[in-house]
Design brief:
The chain is of the alpha/beta class. It has two domains: 214 residues, Rossmann fold, CATH 3.40.50.300; 33 residues. 39% of the residues lie in helices and 12% in strands. Strand 6, helix 7 and strand 7 form a beta-alpha-beta unit. The protein is globular, with a radius of gyration of 19 Å.
């Protein structure tokens, strides 16, 4: 049965209605599951909520194994904190991490969070941003994948696809076991960015998507390049109930986000998807 708040809605982001991958059982360096918030992971100057603690453990395991997949987390669930934890774990596991953003404002938000995490702040960092963008108060390293942490905008990478040296650096990044973390994965540039992702994937890299939406309206999935999909290869899920319990977001914000997306799809498409979804539950 659907949660009361989502009755009749297109996106019932409840873990019982999604199909996460079965948990991996081999021993790895992961974080224990906890229910007491005082025992959760400290990420910079923030104490993780229990669901964030669980998700960061799942993401760390994925990074260590080179597994590609998606984390579904509603609006307001603290994806910038999850991104910072992923960067911290990548540094600890000695795997370079390329963090992709749909725009520079989101990049700035995440970078500010990264600066609160000592291991990430102290790691060699490079940026792929427009020439007029300045990050931090220290000299910037630009347009290099030879770093531990690499915040980038999607278009800054796409604009370098004609550069042979850049293409070679993508290969080297993948061979180093590099991880691509895609924030706002449902907004990732489609065909052009897929060329970047494919190059890294073919060289041995992995991709992780953070998103509030389990599929894209244009039919393109940034995880295709890695032989995975947002819909089926779930690393972890933050349910709406988990997030609402922490008061990090409210039903009104969730309603607004859902209404906007349903308006984008159109009435006929919403009805078709709704009927198909109900048929699956029957």
């Amino acid at each position: 049965m659907l949660p009361a708040h989502f009755a009749g809605r297109l996106f019932p982001l409840d873990s019982s209605l999604l199909c996460p991958m079965p948990p991996l059982t081999d021993p790895v360096k992961t974080l224990p599951e906890v229910t007491n918030p005082t025992h959760t992971r400290q990420i910079g100057n923030k104490q993780a909520e229990p669901y964030q603690h669980r998700i960061t453990g799942s993401v760390r395991e994925a990074i260590q194994r080179g597994r590609s997949g998606a984390v579904l987390a509603p609006t307001g669930s603290g994806k910038s904190l999850l991104a910072a934890a992923a960067a911290e774990d990548a540094v600890d596991l000695e795997k370079p991490i390329l963090v992709l953003h749909s725009d520079v404002s989101l990049l700035r938000q995440n970078y500010a969070r990264f600066q609160t995490v000592p291991a990430v702040k102290g790691a060699p960092t490079a940026f792929f941003v427009a020439k007029n963008e300045i990050m931090g108060d220290q000299p910037m390293v630009r347009n290099s994948l030879d770093a531990a942490v690499i915040p980038a905008t999607n278009m800054s990478l796409v604009n370098k696809l004609d550069d042979e040296d850049f293409l070679h650096s993508l290969d080297q990044f993948g061979k180093r076991g590099g991880v691509i973390l895609i924030d706002e994965g449902h907004k990732a540039a489609a065909e052009e960015l897929a060329r970047v992702l494919s190059r890294i994937a073919l060289a041995g890299g992995s991709g992780i998507v953070l998103t509030a939406i389990p599929f894209r309206t244009d039919g393109n999935d940034p995880l295709d390049a890695f032989g995975a999909s947002i819909e089926h290869d779930l690393i972890d899920v933050a349910t709406c109930d988990e997030v609402l319990t922490t008061r990090r977001t409210v039903p009104t914000r969730l309603d607004i986000a859902t209404d906007e997306f349903e308006a984008h799809l159109g009435t006929d498409a919403v009805r078709f998807i709704g009927s198909a979804f109900l048929a699956l539950l029957a």
